[in-house]
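During the reporting period the student researcher (J.K.) took over the structure-prediction task from the postdoctoral fellow and processed the backlog of single-chain submissions. One of the processed entries is reproduced below for the supervisory committee.
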Amino acid sequence: MKILIRGVNWIGDAVITTPSVRAIRRAYPDAHISLLVKPWVAELFKENPDINEIILYDESFRGIKGKFRLANKLRRQRFDIAILLQNAFDAALLAWLADIPERIGYSRDGRGFLLTKSIHVTKDILSQHQVYYYLNLLKSIGIETKEAQPCIYLTDEERMWARNTVGAIHESPLPRKGVLQYAPTIGINPGATYGSAKRWMPERFAELIFRIINEMNGRVIIFGSKSENEIADEIVGLVKTQRAIRESPLPQKLKTHILNMAGKTNLRELAALIAECDAFITNDSGPMHMASALFVPVVAIFGSTNKASTGPFGEGHNIITKNLPCSPCMKRKCPEGHLKCMTEITADNVFAALKEVLPKEKAVFLDRDGTIIEDKHYLNSFDNLVIFPNAKENLRKLKNAGFKLIGITNQSGVARGIINEHFVIELNTYLQEEFGIDDFYYCPHHPDERCSCRKPEPVMPLLARLRHRINLKASYVIGDKELDVQLARKTGATGVLISSPPSPENTCASFVAKDLAGAVEWILEREASKLK
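J.K. obtained the following structure tokens:
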């Protein structure tokens, strides 16, 4: 089976389609899946395990002759199915010219006669978030659509590059005796390609940045495309000239607390740097959707556009909008000439929203099997459950020290048909109640699926950050496998490996303990030393 997916052309829309690409892969696990997209969105799908091949719809295929060349190229690949996520007539025409026997898409832009399965668009579909708009197309043809969260895949090298880039420029906060210093990194995205009606004013961004630096000791990364360099430069200039800054010690901090990356990144680098942020403040834009797909808490400023259909997807975000009779107007420029939907949003509003989503809690992420209970290799009955001695006492020490406790466990036995998923949920719930664990996350997928939630991939801790406002940089991961401490490294947490002596020679753990008690003791001693 060979499947061609015609992707969409805008960055934000492309991010929103990632759950649909995942659903197609789940429905056709052995198919060869190719994605046809414009070059400027192609990088979003790099490293995506659900795609075998990316075909670029670049400038060489412009015009009538170009379309025939592309159609011939596609025809030679002998695709069985074309799923058209893009709504344009052009997408259906190419699939028809390429002699793809099954052509599926929404009946829009006058292209219904070119499709073999033409799906009608209802008002109900258009009223939902756009994630569901694309998933509904698949649901209409019998494809199961369980997962709706958009996701961008990053490599370890990309994450480390971003971490080093941020760390090399920003200085560490000055220590104060007896107080743990937390210097959040806040992403600022002041641009929006749709038009001025989607852009909050530069002077408000400047006021906001001043407060982030002055009141939070925060560090700011300004993002934007090359065409938005002028906006970013204007904001930096406004920050420097504010009277409040001239009367404060802030001038010395500007070089180490503001990093202007507008026009200096490609799409992969942009994604990696956004992933390093503790929160992301943005207009309605492509980078806003990238941040939510990277599980970064978002403060989204909405004016002329509809927050219900295009807001950041998932929990843990904050959307700021003014309920005006004229909003959302969906116009590029304000038709009323006043832009009140933006001017009435103050820096105080946005700063307050930032404080609501900013991660502040510290947590210990706990592997389950081999860490707090014996590893029975696919435990599937309470009869075989063995809890390690003193586990409850040790976890209580962490709770008393102010840590949230979050369970994270790989349970591929569910996908293998060895373990009943209901039992996994039941056991995790029991352990939560027994040990005072605040939440439990599990991955039920087979390793071959290369999902984004299976450890050492970072999605489970990232979801916990959104739900519980967890500061990953102040948190720990305890586990008995190297993949547990690899997970810590990916998220910026500190990894503690439980291993019988002798300690492994090659590990990325910050500490190796012989048991849970040793891991807890080391964490508490390390936390106490920070306060001296």
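The committee noted the following: The chain is about 40% helix and 15% strand.
J.K. will present the remaining backlog at the next meeting.
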